Structures are given as structure tokens and as C-alpha cells.
């Protein structure tokens, strides 16, 4: 009888150990809501998912077309996001509603982030530790190598090109963020006092300042793809039109993307990066943890991994995503001349006014 009781006890202990091990082996899920519009980015995040498995984290890339939709869900308490990829007006909306955790000081390795990329200010608003930089964006165009010889075009030169090549130039429909930034780049070249764009619109005589800009768009649109009556829905759609030679331009925030896409055979090898004006609007893109996150500690560990030398070097690889690194340990790729992004109130103004005039 004692032998049987002993055997039962041993079996119970073994079952308990197995159950404990099984529980410990369960990875912690992290729902990462991030733009899913580019294959190279999606491939990179699949790689990150595999790497994080070893750390007991099940990273789930939830692909979104516009992170603004996730922001609406978060501000209304209807999101299961543990980690989000944001900047600009979306950050402003979440900061304004106190929807983000202060995580920067909790992230191991934050001290290695470059101090010369201006990441502490996002579209005119202090970050205040609520988001952590992940990469660097610089807005520019792709153009076919036989289309232009120069590396930059003024707004007037772009208009002249559109007139000479009707239906071959376009931009994504605002409020898609590439489309809105295209408008900003034109405004920077058309407005004499560009310092106004660092101020709130309420502090500026907007109607007077922007009169040349809206007059320019009225001239440009009839010469665009679809005579300006329709626009690509996204940068990805426009890239496909460019790759299929239906358009002579595409749009990008990645200063290395023309090289990476050419390396992948997705666009002609002769494609080149072209700025509008003398400098590219430059900003950081960030990672943030919502207050409503179910697994905030695991989300912070994901941020730490994505800021690691291994992950940042992989991200900057021109054979893959090619997104510039933000940490000191990884040599910086050559960037375009930089222009500061606008205060967020200009972002909202441009989108509303564009829709009222051209929708």
C-alpha cells in the first residue's frame, strides 16, 4: 500500500512539474499594430517574431493600412494593442487623451539612441518619454532614370514636367500620410517664409500665406494621373503604378528604399531618388505602448529588442527594409538634406482644406 501511495505521489509530483513547465513555456503574446503596406517591412517583422520566440514572446504583427484607425479604437477603449508604430498627428491624439504609458526611461538601451536626430520633438510636440524612436523618415520621390537628370525638382519644375507628360505624375490621396507630406513638400518650396510651418496655424495668417500654394495645385491637378479627379489610395498602390511604368513617380519616406527595391527587382535599376526643393522633410517614427496594453512589460521587451544592435543592423540592411538606424552602434547611411516637419496643426489644416477643395 505504501508503495502504491508513493507511486501516486511521484506521479502527482511529475504531473505538477509538467504542468508548471507547460505554463512556463507559454509565450507571452504582444499584439503589435503596425503599417503592413510594404513586403520588406512585413518580412522584417516576421524575422523579429522568430527572434523573439526565444525570449518567450509571441509577437503578432497586426497589419493596418492607417494607424489612425487604431488611434480611434484606443481613444474609445476598444483596442487590444500592446504596441503601436506611430508618429505625428497620431501621437498628438494619443498624448492629448493620456492614452500612452511613459516607457522611454524603462527601455534598456535607450541611452544608445542617437542624439542628433531630434527625436525628442514629434511634429512640434515634446515626446515626454511616451514613445521611443525606431527609425528615420525622409520624404522624397522615386522617378525613372530617363525622366529627370537632377536629384531635386522645384515645385515649378514638377509642374512643367507634369504639363509635358500629362497623366504621368500623381500622389496618394490625403489624408494618407505620404499624400499629406507631398503637399507639405510643395508648400515648403512655394511659401517664402517657411518658418511659419513651425508655428501653430492659429498664430499665422494662413489664408495669405497659403494662397500661392492652393493656386499652384489648381494648375497642377489637370495634368496629373486621371486629370486629378482620382488619386492612388496609398503609397503602395502608387509604387505598383510606377513599377508598371504607368506613372513616372512614386513616393517614399525611406531614403534607402530606391536602392532596396531596385536590389529586389521591384523597380527599374535606373530609378532614382528625387527631392522636391532643396531638402527632404525628415522625422522619426516611433514605438509606443498604450495604457490599455494587456502585456506592457513584454511590449517593452519587444522595444528593447527592436532597438538592439542586431535588430537595428538588420533593419538598415539594403537587401531588406533599409530603414536608417537610430542607435550609435550602427553606422548611419547617407541621408538626404533635412528639413523639419511641420507643426501638427498644419497637417490637420492641409488635410481638411484639400478635402474641401478637391474631394
Q: What are the main properties of this structure?
A:
4-stranded mixed beta sheet; about 40% helix; single chain; 6-stranded mixed beta sheet; about 350 residues; alpha/beta
Shape: globular
Q: Count helical runs.
A: 12
Helix content: 40-55%
Radius of gyration: 24 Å
The description of the largest β-sheet is: 6 strands, mixed
Helix/strand/pairing category: alpha/beta
Low-confidence stretches: 6-15, 17-23
Task: Give the N-to-C terminal Cα separation.
Answer: 85 Å
Q: What's the oligomerization state?
A: single chain
Roughly what fraction of the amino acids lie in strands? 15-25%
Query: Could you tell me the number of beta strands?
Result: 12
Mean pLDDT: 91
Order of helices and strands: HEHEHEHEEEEEHHHHEHEEHHEH
Task: Summarize the structure in words.
The protein has 359 residues and is of the alpha/beta class. It is 41% helix and 16% strand. Strands 1, 2, 3, 6, 11 and 12 form a 6-stranded mixed sheet that branches. It starts with a helix and ends with a helix. The model is unreliable at 6-15 and 17-23 (pLDDT under 50).
Describe the structure in brief.
With 359 residues, the protein is an alpha/beta fold.
List the helices and strands and how they pair.
Layout: H1 2-25, E1 28-35, H2 39-53, E2 57-64, H3 67-75, E3 83-86, H4 88-96, E4 121-122, E5 125-126, E6 132-138, E7 140-143, E8 152-153, H5 155-164, H6 177-190, H7 206-220, H8 235-243, E9 249-252, H9 257-263, E10 272-276, E11 280-288, H10 296-306, H11 309-316, E12 338-340, H12 344-358
Amino acid at each position: 500500500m505504501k508503495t502504491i501511495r508513493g507511486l501516486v505521489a511521484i506521479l502527482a509530483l511529475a504531473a505538477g512539474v509538467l504542468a508548471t513547465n507547460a505554463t512556463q513555456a507559454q509565450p507571452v503574446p504582444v499584439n503589435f499594430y503596425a503599417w503592413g503596406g510594404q513586403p520588406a517591412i512585413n518580412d522584417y517583422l516576421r524575422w523579429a517574431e522568430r527572434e523573439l520566440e526565444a525570449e518567450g514572446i509571441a509577437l503578432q504583427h497586426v497589419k493596418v493600412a492607417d494607424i489612425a484607425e487604431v488611434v480611434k479604437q484606443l481613444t474609445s477603449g476598444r483596442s487590444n494593442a500592446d504596441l503601436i508604430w506611430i508618429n505625428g498627428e497620431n501621437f498628438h491624439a494619443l498624448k492629448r487623451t493620456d492614452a500612452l504609458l511613459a516607457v522611454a526611461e524603462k527601455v534598456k538601451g535607450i541611452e544608445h539612441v542617437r542624439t542628433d536626430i531630434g527625436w525628442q520633438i514629434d511634429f512640434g510636440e515634446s515626446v515626454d518619454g511616451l514613445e521611443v524612436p525606431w527609425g528615420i523618415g525622409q520624404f522624397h520621390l522615386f522617378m525613372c532614370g530617363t525622366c529627370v537628370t537632377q536629384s531635386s525638382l522645384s515645385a515649378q519644375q514638377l509642374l512643367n514636367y507634369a504639363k509635358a507628360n500629362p497623366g504621368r505624375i500623381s500622389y496618394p490621396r490625403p489624408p494618407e500620410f505620404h499624400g499629406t507630406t507631398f503637399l507639405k513638400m510643395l508648400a515648403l518650396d512655394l511659401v517664402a517664409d517657411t518658418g511659419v510651418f513651425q508655428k501653430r496655424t492659429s498664430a499665422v495668417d494662413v489664408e495669405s500665406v497659403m494662397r500661392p500654394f492652393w493656386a499652384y495645385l489648381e494648375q497642377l491637378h489637370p495634368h496629373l494621373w486621371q486629370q486629378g479627379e482620382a488619386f492612388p489610395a496609398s503609397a503602395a498602390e502608387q509604387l505598383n503604378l510606377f513599377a508598371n511604368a504607368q506613372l513616372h513617380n512614386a513616393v517614399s519616406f525611406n531614403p534607402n528604399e530606391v536602392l532596396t527595391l531596385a536590389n529586389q527587382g521591384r523597380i527599374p535599376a535606373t530609378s532614382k531618388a528625387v527631392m522636391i526643393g532643396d531638402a527632404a522633410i525628415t522625422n522619426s517614427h516611433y514605438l509606443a505602448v498604450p495604457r490599455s496594453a494587456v502585456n506592457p512589460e513584454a511590449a517593452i521587451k519587444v522595444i528593447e529588442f527592436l532597438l538592439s544592435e542586431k535588430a537595428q543592423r538588420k533593419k538598415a540592411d539594403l537587401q531588406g527594409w533599409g530603414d536608417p538606424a537610430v542607435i550609435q552602434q550602427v553606422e548611419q547611411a547617407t541621408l538626404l538634406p533635412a528639413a523639419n516637419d511641420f507643426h501638427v496643426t498644419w497637417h490637420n489644416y492641409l488635410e481638411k482644406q484639400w478635402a474641401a477643395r478637391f474631394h
